[in-house]
């Protein structure tokens, strides 16, 4: 990789700014001052410093975000704030994107990365990576609703969902509000809401707290994020390299 490209990719500055840093003799490669940005470097073994500070090359970024309500799962939006707007400029430089989507009024676990292969593994219905949600549902659920979820629910467009697991945590007969837990392995548009709409019930609150083995950090308030832990990264890499 070219030295100037590595520096620009790591957010040290624009190509023009990097060129000025090189000209000012502020960049060293293996303790030698380098003024030529076209010099090739090995990010894994060469030591690059700017003003004496080491520059550690990083290709991918992996962040766990507690998505708040009112924010859209997109990289850009003309009207609403996006999950990418919640990140610092340093993280935005990696051009990350949300893995899968959570509706604007849905909160919970969202992985932010620029690793397309991992994103595909986590979201493809053929990979059978489960997603767990907690919901509040208003309306009268049928007595056999758990079985119907297990057999697949017919949505409004005729699509029959893959088998899903439903657990009723509580049900208030007076208010007709139930708190439920849902586990699915696909992510059709508004799927969880539409599954309950098939039974003439309305989801009034929805939160995702698990994707595969990634569990929403209880210490993360809505809008906050952190890098994945080594254990979480290990899971992602195992999933990424797994043969299906």
**Could you name the ranges where pLDDT drops below 50 across 5 or more consecutive residues?**
none
Instruction: Determine the fraction of residues in helical runs and give it as a percent range.
Output: 10-25%
Shape: elongated
How many DSSP-defined strands? 13
Biggest beta sheet summary: 9 strands, mixed
Count of DSSP H/I helices? 7
Straight-line distance between termini = 33 Å
Average the pLDDT over all residues and give the rounded result: 93
**How would you spell out the order of helices and strands?**
HHEEEEEHEEHEHEEHEEEH
Radius of gyration: 23 Å
Describe the fold and architecture.
- With 244 residues, the protein is an alpha+beta fold.
- The protein has helices at residues 3-9, 15-23, 89-92, 116-123, 145-151, 191-197, 230-241; strands at 27-29, 32-33, 48-50, 53-54, 62-67, 97-98, 107-113, 131-138, 165-172, 177-184, 202-211, 214-215, 225-227.
- The chain starts with a helix and ends with a helix.
- The model has no long low-confidence stretch (mean pLDDT 93).
